[in-house]
Amino acid sequence: MSLLSLILLSIALSLDCFTVCFIFGMQRSAFKKALKAGEKDPFPSLGWGAVQAGLVFAVFHIVMIVLGWFLGWGMSSIVARFDHWFAFALLAAIGLKNIIEGFNNKETDLKVHAMFHWKSLLLLALAVSIDAFAVGISLKMLQVSLSAVCLSVPLAVLLISIAGVFLGYLTHKQVKQVSLRTINLVGGLVLIGIGIRILVEHLSA
């Protein structure tokens, strides 16, 4: 695999992470704006939150690529029957929770159901890294260097995820009239949309 192909592959696997983190960044900004005077922000700093999300997404991509590489075609037929449904179910469940929170009538009761909660972060990381498992299987058949992929993909995921959080945060600061409720609704729809895309791509394949 050429360097250009490796870079393009890494970026492609990072796009879902970027989208999710962009929504996270917007949620973070909207939540901060919704705080009352003197109310303490319960979440970590934006920078640490972004790095935290990027690292978790990167680690999950490494694990899934390595699993795909070593399990190979022997287990791929079994996993391929269910992996896309599993990813869809996770994203749909988290997306629906965001939507339900978006319909909450009390703005002060809204919470950021995103990377600031470890359970949500781990489930999302698992869902958006499903494609990396299939990539691991394919790379083994193509006899591509596993070490090169395990360096390139996680690095891209880490950097693009961090960029997504900050871009989302800055975007919301420029469009301040968008409430946390609206972002939760849109974010939920986006997560469900990613799940549907994964499902359609795997079923059509």
What this model shows, in words?
The chain has one domain. Helices cover 81% and strands 0% of the residues. The chain contains 6 helices and no strands. Helix 1 (3-34) runs parallel beside helix 5, helix 2 packs across helix 3 and helix 2 crosses helix 6. It is globular. The relative contact order is 0.24.
What is the total number of structural domains?
1
Helix-strand string: HHHHHH
Structural class: mainly alpha
Shape: globular
Low-confidence stretches: none
* Approximate strand percentage: under 5%
Tell me about the largest β-sheet: none
Strand segment tally: 0
User: Termini, distance in Å?
Assistant: 23 Å
- Mean pLDDT, as a whole number? 79
Helix content: over 70%
Q: What integer value in Å does the Rg equal? A: 18 Å
Q: How many individual helices?
A: 6
Describe the SSE topology.
Blueprint: H1 3-34, H2 46-102, H3 118-128, H4 130-141, H5 146-174, H6 180-204
Helix pairs in contact: 1-2, 1-5, 1-6, 2-3, 2-4, 2-5, 2-6
